[in-house]
């Protein structure tokens, strides 16, 4: 199992560099950044900066979307980072939750997400591409590499697309049973489409906090509230009684009254009251190091190949250090 961190982009440049250097030395392989340009700083200058201060750490957005940049601009951006750090850029793609909603738009549909991923991948290979927003064929003649693309998904149609078109699946949750249920749909869809799924990757992205459980829960209660946005979209589409969506995922949002995107992924947000302690514990990786190891072993058995820590609960340096000292050596 690989380990990664994910940052919001609200940490200063000097500390961001230091966190990335520390993470690389601790055994983490990747640093992801939120790509929500209104809420936080654009992540790509930080990626370029941190590439110059690390040697092997990979970087990418977790997640980007089809509708905030022209597709050729996005492909050129990713290809430029490939030139700066060969083999150290990969991306994950979603519909665009906070990024789009902060501008008053709805997230993209799944068909557009797939078309974007296919176009960007082809452009990074140096192929000529024509897409709906551009009347002429576009080609990055100077680019020639295979861009790894993960898909973030929860609903049945998105999971199907992830298996058919992605190199990996991003699941913002750390519940082993739900991980297994989601990933089976993606891998089955890929196999039916004739894809080679032997190297398909599964990411569990969730907060991790080490300490007494009560403290851990209070530091990470924001996370199920954030996940609740995606769950609410699924419930709206498929209903609460659909066999396509497990009750263990949807039941907790019944008391949800709203969500303030200005406090997105904020541990001190005002919209957390509906989230119960058992859901917080189920969705994250919490407690003393031995509990982390046990939970991560369960995630690995469920098919997870990369555990990404949403590193935004406070005490970021301590969490990286404890993982590097007590946890990663046991599971890598």
Q: What is the string of SSEs from the N terminus onward?
A: EHEHEHEHHEHEHEEHHHHEHEH
- Low-pLDDT runs: none
How many domain units? 1
Strand order of the largest sheet: 3-2-1-10-7-6-5-4
How much strand content do the residues show? 5-15%
Which structural class fits the helix and strand makeup? alpha/beta
Classified by CATH, the class is Alpha Beta
Shape: globular
What's the CATH topology label? TIM Barrel
Mean pLDDT: 92
Helix content: 40-55%
State the separation between the terminal residues, measured CA to CA: 5 Å
Q: What is the alpha-carbon Rg in Å?
A: 19 Å
Largest sheet: 8 strands, parallel
Number of strands: 10
Number of discrete helical segments = 13
What is the CATH architecture assignment? Alpha-Beta Barrel
Q: For this structure, what is the CATH homologous superfamily? A: Luciferase-like domain
Structure characterization notes:
The chain has one domain (2-212, 286-331): TIM Barrel. The model has no long low-confidence stretch (mean pLDDT 92). The chain has helices spanning 13-26, 44-51, 71-84, 98-101, 110-124, 156-165, 176-192, 213-220, 222-238, 247-250, 277-283, 289-301, 316-331, and strands at residues 2-7, 30-33, 58-61, 91-93, 149-152, 168-171, 201-206, 208-210, 285-287, 306-310. With 332 residues, it is an alpha/beta fold. The chain contains 13 helices and ten strands. 44% of the residues lie in helices and 13% in strands. The termini are close together. It is globular and about 55 Å long. Helix 3 (71-84) packs across helix 5 (110-124) and helix 12 crosses helix 13. The strands form two sheets. An eight-stranded parallel β-sheet has the order 3-2-1-10-7-6-5-4, with helices on one face.
């Amino acid at each position: 199992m690989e380990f990664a961190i994910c940052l919001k982009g609200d940490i200063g440049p000097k500390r961001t560099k230091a966190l990335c250097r520390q993470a690389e030395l601790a055994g983490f392989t990747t640093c992801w950044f939120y790509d929500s340009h209104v809420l936080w700083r654009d992540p790509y200058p930080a990626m370029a900066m941190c590439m110059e201060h690390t040697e092997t750490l990979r970087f990418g957005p977790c997640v980007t979307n089809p509708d905030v940049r022209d597709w050729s601009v996005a492909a050129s951006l990713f290809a430029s980072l490939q030139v700066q750090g060969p083999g150290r850029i990969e991306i994950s793609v979603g519909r665009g939750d906070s990024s789009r909603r902060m501008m008053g738009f709805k997230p993209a549909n799944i068909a557009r997400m797939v078309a974007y991923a296919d176009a960007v991948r082809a452009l990074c290979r140096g192929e000529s591409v024509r897409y709906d927003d551009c009347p002429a064929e576009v080609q990055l003649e100077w680019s020639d590499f295979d861009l790894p693309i993960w898909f973030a998904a929860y609903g049945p149609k998105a999971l199907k697309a992830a298996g058919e078109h992605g190199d990996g699946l991003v699941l913002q949750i750390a519940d082993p049973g739900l991980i297994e249920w989601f990933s089976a749909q993606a891998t089955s869809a890929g196999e039916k489409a004739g894809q080679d799924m032997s190297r398909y990757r599964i990411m569990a992205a969730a907060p991790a906090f080490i300490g007494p459980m009560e403290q851990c829960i209070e530091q990470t209660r924001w996370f199920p509230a954030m996940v609740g946005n995606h769950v609410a979209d699924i419930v709206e589409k498929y209903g609460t009684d659909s066999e396509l969506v497990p009750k263990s995922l949807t039941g907790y949002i019944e008391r949800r009254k709203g969500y303030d995107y200005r406090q997105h992924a904020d541990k001190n947000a005002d919209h957390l009251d509906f989230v119960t302690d058992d859901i917080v514990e189920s969705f994250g990786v919490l407690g003393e190091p031995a509990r982390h190891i046990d939970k991560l072993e369960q995630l690995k058995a469920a098919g997870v190949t990369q555990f990404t820590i949403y590193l935004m609960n406070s005490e970021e340096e301590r969490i990286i250090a404890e993982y590097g000292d007590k946890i990663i050596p046991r599971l890598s």
